[in-house]
Design goal:
heterodimer; A: ABC transporter involved in vitamin B12 uptake, BtuC; B: 8-stranded mixed sheet; 12 helices; 14 strands; globular
Chain lengths: 288, 401
């Protein structure tokens, strides 16, 4: 591997890492801040992708599909929290696992009824449908770089929201002591509804924006769910900064693992997780 | 998922999921049991995927098989058919249980299935022990007609080796002397790779690098960059379904398409073309079936299938259809008396199947000896270009029966 290809692989790794962050950020909020083990996170990702596909075929534009899709997923998230998830806050983790696992089955069935079981492609928006030549035979799709940019913006936005705003302060306070925040006169119920909805919308958004790259297919959420949990656990539960660091680490480890030690490529991510957890049992930025 | 549950209790998590799995298994038992004990119909067990990623394949095989039966007036060897259906979920862990359901509980005379090679390995073991006649309608694991071969085990599809071995000759004829192979790191991928390597090296070509991706990952960017840095004469790949679609798209988007020609066996481009636009245009693959095949039987079959099921048939439908034809040949010879197993097997072994893919016979290990076609992607079709290898027989390494 000469230096030019090393740089390209570095770019591949960072780009994949940012993509992971985009998908995992919603889980960081729901799992990390609300403490809900949300196995259905992958299903929200899938629903987002299918929404993008059907709305894009209706409107003829992915941007319009995303603009329509985000409010829909926010409303969907709020309804779900209000109907089901809020009954779980005081219960054992096992109930959360049961409910959200059940939701996976329900959402797959709904997907099958509404959209069928076929795989579909979503075209890359014309404006971004170009490639930048890197070497004589390799070029880089502009859309991938665009997604990386969106991920960075989103990460910064999340960081500001949680660390710098009044709402963020209430969310963090609610995460450490729900009852105390409630007795201070803050409507913690509504805040939790909001956080859950934002988490769902983030997963949905990831599915939508990634649809042209990943295509849209049944059970697509299952593929991302596990890696999302790995990101959250390595990063430290509840830490957006940690999720970002973990995503980039996994992206790089996976990319260079495939190239340098192909026999172990499937294990590298989990080895990384094991090493991090031995070194820091609460994750990189988690509080023990 | 056990790997990811730091922060909550693993045992509780497992308890939760296994309880759900158990409940759904019980749910599927009841309706099947009712159909028992109805006179002297031939009991045919269909063990195929009816849920999950491989659902369309399971359905196509079922439709193909039933079409072959319907064309014979709903009878095989003069006997009416009673079907026993089990959804194998493409889950190798449940393969022994599901196979035994059909063999021990439903007492089927014939076992038909399946798609997933891991499930087929489980079926092979039980078929060998029980001696029940088994027609494998897709799973290409080389071992099924290799070390695991048996008088009662038949295959109407292909061996993994068969699908990639002819590619070596194809590449060499185009003047390519070296190639890299990219696939998922799992049994089928490795068998396809070995088939290609053998065929390519025999022609004097050199496989310069084997690139593997963990199954079923679909982030190809790192390996595509690696291909660009190696600059081989050609790239050969095995991916299937969704992964294949994404690989073709990424290959085109990376700019490699048009610079380094891409080849594969037919699973790379079957059933994905409509979803990926023109990303695969011009890609050449080898398989035992294709579009615009100049075989009269194929035209008749396509028409009949479309009429019966309101669907277009594919290679899986053909494999199911041929399972019906092969079984008919065996049962006709003994006038439906399946208890004369030796007679059935002998007739099947010597049958010449008039298949939509072109006529084929069985090898000694009971795998089809068939033509492998070179096809090219034109629009949404895999148009047959030529016969890449006439009457190719799997070497059946390790078969001692």
């Amino acid at each position: 591997m000469d230096f030019a290809f090393f740089l390209i692989q570095l770019l591949n790794g960072l780009q994949y890492g940012l993509l992971l962050f985009l998908v995992a950020s919603g889980l960081t909020l729901i799992f990390g801040i609300m403490g809900i083990i949300n196995l259905a996170h992958g299903s929200f990702y899938m629903l987002g992708a299918y929404l993008a596909w059907s709305l894009a075929s209706l409107t003829g534009s992915l941007a319009a599909a995303i603009a329509l899709g985000i409010p829909l997923t926010v409303l969907f998230g709020m309804a779900l929290e209000w109907l089901l998830v809020r009954r779980l806050y005081d219960r054992d983790h096992l109930f959360q696992v049961l409910l959200t696992y059940g939701l996976i089955l329900v959402f797959e069935e709904i997907r099958s009824i509404l959209w069928g079981d076929d795989m579909h492609g979503v075209p890359v928006p014309a404006l971004l449908n170009a490639s930048i030549p890197l070497t004589d035979n390799l070029s880089y799709p502009v859309y991938r770089l665009f997604i990386s940019g969106v991920c960075l913006l989103l990460a910064y936005g999340l960081y500001l929201l949680i660390k710098k705003t009044r709402l963020g302060m209430m969310i963090r306070a609610g995460a450490s002591n729900r009852d105390m925040v409630q007795s201070l006169g803050i409507n913690i119920k509504f805040i939790y509804t909001l956080v859950f909805a934002v988490g769902v919308a983030l997963a949905g958004f990831a599915g939508m924006i990634n649809a042209p790259l990943s295509s849209v297919f049944p059970n697509m959420g299952g593929h991302v769910l596990i890696i999302c949990f790995v990101v959250v656990v390595i990063g430290g539960i509840g830490s957006v900064k940690g999720a970002m660091a973990a995503s980039l680490m996994i992206g790089l480890a996976d990319t260079f693992g495939q190239v340098l030690v192909p026999e172990m490529a499937g294990m590298i991510v989990y080895l990384l997780m094991a090493v991090v957890l031995i070194w820091r049992p609460a994750g990189l930025f988690g509080r023990a | 998922m056990e790997k990811t549950n730091h922060g909550f209790d693993r045992r509780e998590f497992l308890k939760g999921t296994s309880a759900i799995a158990g409940a759904s298994a019980v749910g599927t038992l009841a309706p099947l049991g009712l159909a028992r004990a109805q006179g002297a119909k031939l009991r045919v067990g269909l063990m195929l995927p009816y849920t999950g990623t491989y659902t369309p394949l399971g359905v196509a095989i079922t439709n193909g098989f039933k079409l072959a039966v319907e064309e014979r007036g709903g009878k095989l060897g003069g006997r009416e058919i009673e079907y026993f259906v089990v959804d194998d979920e493409s889950n190798p862990g449940k393969a022994p249980e599901n196979t035994n359901k059909l063999i021990q509980r439903d007492k089927v005379d014939v076992l038909i299935g399946t798609v997933h090679s891991g499930v087929a390995m489980g079926m092979a073991k039980i078929a060998r022990e029980s001696g029940v006649l088994w027609l494998n309608t897709n799973a290409g694991a080389d071992d099924v007609t290799g070390p695991l071969c048996a008088p009662n085990i038949f295959r109407t599809s292909f061996s993994n080796w068969q699908t990639t071995y002819p590619l070596g000759k194809v590449l060499k004829a185009k003047g390519y002397n070296n190639a890299v192979f990219i696939t998922w790191k799992y049994a089928a991928g490795e068998e396809m790779l070995r088939g290609f390597r053998e065929g390519f090296e025999k022609e004097g070509g050199k496989l310069t690098k084997e690139l593997y991706l963990p199954f079923p990952q679909v982030e190809f960017q790192a390996l595509l960059t690696e291909i660009a840095s190696i600059k081989p004469d050609a790239v050969v790949s095995f991916f299937a379904g969704v992964g294949a679609g994404k690989f073709l798209k990424d290959y085109a988007a990376s700019g490699l398409k048009g610079k380094i020609p891409l080849y594969g066996n037919g699973f790379l481009t079957d059933g994905v073309l409509e979803a990926i636009g023109d990303a695969a245009e011009g890609v050449e693959t080898t398989l035992h079936y294709g579009d615009n095949l100049n075989v009269p039987k194929d035209k008749a079959f396509r028409l009949a299938y479309a009429k019966a099921w309101k669907l277009q048939p594919d290679v899986y439908a053909v494999q199911g259809y041929d399972a019906g034809q092969l079984l008919a040949a065996g049962l006709d010879a003994v006038k439906g008396d399946i208890s004369n197993k030796a007679g059935v097997i002998k007739a099947m072994e010597s049958a010449k199947i008039d298949s939509p893919r072109g006529a084929w016979t069985l090898s000694k290990a009971h795998n089809p000896v068939q033509d492998i076609y070179l096809r090219k992607v034109v629009g949404n079709q895999n148009v047959v270009q030529s016969v890449a290898w006439k009457a190719l027989a799997d070497p059946a390494r390790g078969c001692k029966a």
